[in-house]
Each structure stands twice: as C-alpha cells, then as structure tokens.
Design a protein that fits this description.
- By secondary structure, this protein is mostly helical.
- It is about 75% helix and about 0% strand.
- It starts with about 20 loop residues before the first helix and ends with a helix.
- The relative contact order is 0.15.
Length: about 400
Amino acid sequence: MGNSTVRAVDRTGAPERARGGGLAVLSVAFAFWITMAGTTAPTPLYPLYGEEFGFTPFTVTVVFAVYALGVVLGLLVFGRLSDQVGRRPVLVAATLLSVVAAVVFLLAQSVAAMLVARVVSGFSAALVTGAATASLAERLGQHSRVKPATLALFANMGGLACGTLIAGILADLAPSPLRTPWVVMLALAAVGMLGVLVSGESSAHRSGFSLQVQPLHVPAEIRSDFLRSAMAAGAGFAVLGVLTAVTGLFLGTVLHESSHALTGLVVFIAFACTALGQLLVRTLKPATALPASCLGLIAAAGLIAAAMATSTLAPLLVGAAANGLATGIAVGHGIGGITTRSAPQHRGASVSTFFAILYSMLAVPAIGVGVLIRETSLRPAGETFSAVVAALSLGVLLSLVRTGRRAA
C-alpha cells in the first residue's frame, strides 16, 4: 500500500540517524507481515464455513467484501493516526486487532461473528500499513542497503500471499481445520504485538490526536494518469477480490478438488505476483507501464474465463499470475506518479484516495459476482465477470492510445 518516506528529525530539525537496530526492524516487518496474513487466512476455509453454517456463495462474497470496506473506512478515518500519536501505539493497536480477529474466528458460531472478524481485520490492515511503512523508513534511513519501500512491499504482499497458503495447508493437515489455522494466526499475531511493544518508538514528532476523516484528493496536475492507473489497478484488485472469495468454491464444485492448500496456492500466486509486478514496474518506462498492465489484465481475464469454460486448473493458475503481475505494475505506476509528479502537500491524501478506490474495487465486484452466482451459477458468473474486467482494461488501453496520438 502507501509508501511513506518520512524521516525522523531531532528537536533542532536535523535529520536523525535511523532508529533501532536490526531486531526492531525485524519486529516491525514481522508485525506488518502477520497482520496482513491474518486478513487472507479465511480464504481457503470459506467452503468449510459454508458447510458448517449452511450459507451460500453470495454470503461468502459479502463476508469477504466487508473486510475491504473496513480497510477503506480505516484508511479514511485513521490514515494519519501514526503521525499524530506515534508509530508504536498504532502498530500495537493493529496487531491487537489482528489477535482479536483471530479469536473471533476461532470462536465463531455464526455468519455474524465472521462479519465482525472481517471488519476488525480490515481496520487492522488499515492501521498497520501506514504505521509500519513509515516506521521502517525511519528505522532504516535512506542509505540502508535494504530499501524501506521494498521491505514494506514484501511484508505487505508477502503477508497477503502467505496467510492463505498457511491456512490452507493447516486446514488439510490439522485435525480441526476451522480451529487450528486460527490458533496459529493468534499465536503469531501475539508474537508480532509483543515485538512492536518492546521495540520502542521510531517517530521523533507527533502532532497530537484529532479525529477527522482524511479528505479524498485527486491531483489535478496528473488527474488523467491517476484515474487511468486507478481504473487499471482497480480492475486487477477486482480479480484479486473474486479469486480470494470464490476460488475454493470453483475448485470444490467445478474441479472437484478438495485440497484447501490448492485454494491457498492460487491466491498465493496472485498476491506474490502482485508484489513482483510492483518491483518490475521500476524497470519499465513510464510510457509503457500502464499499456503493458492493461494487456496483462486482458490476457488474465481471458485465461480465467477459459478456466471457467473448460473446467481446468492450469489457465486459472496462469491467469492468477498474469493478473498479479499486471496489477502490481498498475499500482506501482500509480503510486510512482503520485509521489513524483503531484504536489507534496497533497500526496498523503492522494495515496489514500488511490487505495480507497482500489479497495472499493476489491469489495463491490465480489458482491456483484455473488449476486450473479445466486441468479445463475458459478461458471457463467465467472465468465461474465472476466468479460467486464477485460472491457474495463481495454477501455483504459484505448484511452492511452488516443492520448498518445494527440500528443504525437
């Protein structure tokens, strides 16, 4: 998510040396990783919850979507909290919320409890992202061999990727598949909370708490590029959301694959490739990054539709990887444009707006697919969704082509 490059300063205004040693950096990175891992841990368990509580695929998409809505609300209300009260209190709060979400899932006996756990997870993700990214930047400093933004990226996307894979493996191997993953997540989140609690504060200045909603801001100087990047990345996030919500259903009902680890693997590939795409964008020219992303999203949508139409696994795996790479490129391009070409005083609000759009796209299409599944069935719903994603990506691509022609 957002890449903060804030550096601590001492009382004289001079830059302060990076705060904390390697253990403090590791503690913050681990807290970031486990908090994000907890948000995707339910993915391979949804079919089991469906059997346990007797709910429909539509309910699964709603349970998933409330997480994304929790992230958006958390970003808008608490996005600047770590600037106001310090990094450590917010990191402790984020990991504590991750612990609470794991406890609620562990004890869940109804869909209502799952919805509560997902909203809490959304708040934990919103709190940890800015606080951990800023803390890593302050602890490592600008001249570290390990770049803070790269470490934050791997903690963030690595957590999203690993959470679903770990939960899937545990669900296959453990005697209690709906309990054991949450015991493990609970224990790891508690370790993460203890780590940030004893690591000390990395921020030298705090502005004091004031509760106000972060205003949305689309930078006028890069409005066209901002909106195109957001639409392309949003299309990719929509696919990530649907993969996270219904992959287990597809594998179980269409392919008759009962492995929860396989569900976790599909989503792991998607998120891992999203991280790789954000690294890959650094090697691409700005003029080629977004067109390449759009082409990748169109190809991914075609592969996922082919998986639905032919009831085969291989196109789904390749499509998940292609979508992840394309999404990561679009996200990296969008954030790069904001941080290098927009007015400095509006960058924080612009990044929050960018991710508010992405997480809205993560949630709303998933619910739409749930409605389609209820009205038709999984395969036509998946094919229709893939067509919409391809059309949106094609629209962005054609817009880029028209702009390029006018510029020439």
